[in-house]
Specification:
Strand 5 and strand 6 form a beta hairpin. The protein starts with a strand and ends in a 7-residue tail after the last helix. With 469 residues, the chain is an alpha/beta fold. It has 14 helices and 22 strands. The protein has three domains: 216 residues, FAD/NAD(P)-binding domain, CATH 3.50.50.60; 112 residues, FAD/NAD(P)-binding domain (3-Layer(bba) Sandwich); 114 residues, FAD/NAD-linked reductase, C-terminal dimerisation domain (Enolase-like, domain 1), CATH 3.30.390.30. Helix 3 runs antiparallel to helix 4 and helix 3 packs parallel to helix 6.
């Protein structure tokens, strides 16, 4: 690989890196991306968002065929699982996404420097290729977009066979008879749902006393009840102390988080899903003068600049929610800042979705956050059981909940459990971005019959004037 010089060089081709690179190229910068994986797209495309959503959708169809079709008057024999074909579909989606990003790189004349990047200081990055050959790339602006990695659990060794991370859970060769998911967060609930639908007996073990701990409290409670009806079991307030591989599975040891008698649970597969941590190892940060904070994240100012001149950082490796779309926005915004523009990101308008069924979607503040900050607020809530389209779909679990600041009359939060909640949330995210009130949302004409009417009704409910409840 010949040495080269660029205006902007991104280390990492995940959502932040590849989106930022495309935007930089559109703005006229000579751009390159260093990426060591054989496929572009980072964790999200290869072992995260994309493959998990493929399995979630396929498993939803399988479960519905076995449990829901008859209610619609569709009589079929019990569905038979063809796991290899389901996995092949998942991998084809990944491959298609990889190729799509490669096409975009070529279209925008972005160089893919294949290998591992390391900061050398002075605007230089050492790239070690797959064959071990080294070269040096120089750039006026260097952007660290290396994402995050699986958070390990002390005392538990992940072998990606019987004790797996989210990566291993995406490639299991057979449906386990039993599975324990350590962690009741987004990833654990999504992948636990996949294997539960396909036939595994799934138990979620969570250290805290609630699942989805960063979500609105009412949402967490109702979502647990819904998942329990789907067959998932929960052990809350429990601390896992050990997981030892046995002849046929794993022996899991745990005890109450607040103290108490220990117990052992024997299962086929254990999924360790307690979160993710910034991936900042081996980047030569010290030598380049890039400092970390006390949580191992790269320190940045309000404009993604690190403590080293000419070096920036975006995405999971810096503070903020570890979300692919947050990284994408940061990548594009940084490119525009370097081009002299004045873009912005509103941290209160970053949506988050849990892709279980029903979905959980949220944006802005929770009730708990508003109470803690002594912000007076009004609530508007509308259940999907009162929405005609949801009844037609037999998807009536959940609700739309809108929170409005009583002082400013602006919407400052929205929390949805329901069908296609992630899509429905976009309307309220836009409302928050543009400082709209609940009345503004309510006065928009919504198509009938659609799920979006539940959003309108929740907005009406803020002022106590729902129509259909």
């Amino acid at each position: 690989m010949a040495d080269a010089s660029y205006d902007i060089l991104f280390i990492g081709a995940g959502p932040g890196g590849y989106t930022g690179a495309i935007r930089a190229a559109q703005l006229g910068f000579k751009t390159a991306v260093v990426e060591k994986s054989p496929g572009l797209g980072g964790t999200c495309t290869n072992v995260g968002c994309i493959p998990s959503k493929a399995l979630l959708h396929s498993s939803e169809l399988f479960y519905e065929a076995g449990h829901g079709f008859a209610k619609h008057g569709i009589k079929i024999a019990a569905p038979e699982l063809d796991l290899p074909t389901m996995m092949a579909h998942k991998q084809s989606v990944v491959a298609s996404s990889n190729k799509g990003i490669e096409f975009l790189f070529k279209k925008n004349k972005i160089d893919w420097l294949k290998g591992t990047g390391k900061l050398l200081g002075g605007g230089k990055v050492e790239v070690t290729g797959p064959d071990g050959a080294k070269s040096t790339a120089t750039a006026k602006h260097i952007v660290i977009a290396t994402g995050s990695d699986v958070m390990p659990l002390r005392g538990i060794e992940i072998d990606e066979k019987s004790i797996v991370s989210s990566t291993g859970a995406l490639v299991l060769g057979a449906v386990p008879k039993s599975m324990v998911v350590i962690g009741g967060g987004v990833i654990g609930l999504e992948l636990g749902s996949v294997w539960s639908r396909l036939g595994a007996e799934v138990t979620v073990v969570e250290f805290l006393d609630r699942i989805l701990p960063t979500n609105d409290g009412e949402v967490s409670k109702q979502m647990q009840r819904i998942l329990e009806r789907q067959g998932i079991k929960f052990r809350l307030g429990m601390k896992v102390t050990a997981a030892k591989k046995a002849k046929s599975g794993v022996s899991l040891s745990m005890e109450p988080a607040k103290g108490g008698a220990a117990e052992t649970l024997d299962v086929d597969v254990v999924l360790v899903s307690i979160g993710r941590r910034p991936y900042a190892d081996g980047l030569g940060l010290d030598a380049a003068g890039v400092q970390l904070d006390d949580k191992g994240r790269i320190k940045t100012d309000g404009h993604f600049a690190t403590t080293a001149a000419g070096i920036y950082a975006i995405g999971d490796v810096i503070a903020g929610p570890m979300l692919a779309h947050k990284a994408e926005e940061e990548g594009a915004v940084l490119a525009e800042l370097l081009a002299g523009q004045k873009p912005h990101i509103n941290p209160d308008a970053i949506p988050a979705v849990v892709y279980t069924w029903p979905e959980v979607a949220s944006v802005g503040k929770t009730e708990e956050e508003l109470k803690a900050a002594n912000i007076p607020y009004k609530i508007g809530k509308f259940p999907f059981s009162a929405n005609a389209r949801a009844r037609a779909m037999m998807a009536t679990d959940g609700f739309v909940k809108i929170l409005e600041d009583q002082r400013t009359k602006r919407v400052i939060g929205c929390h949805i459990i329901g069908p296609n909640a992630g899509d429905l949330l976009a309307e309220v995210t836009a409302a928050i971005e543009y400082g709209a009130s609940a009345e503004d949302i309510a006065r928009v004409c919504h198509s009938h019959p659609t799920l979006t009417e539940a959003v309108k009704e929740a907005a009406l409910a803020v002022d106590g004037r729902t129509i259909n409840m």
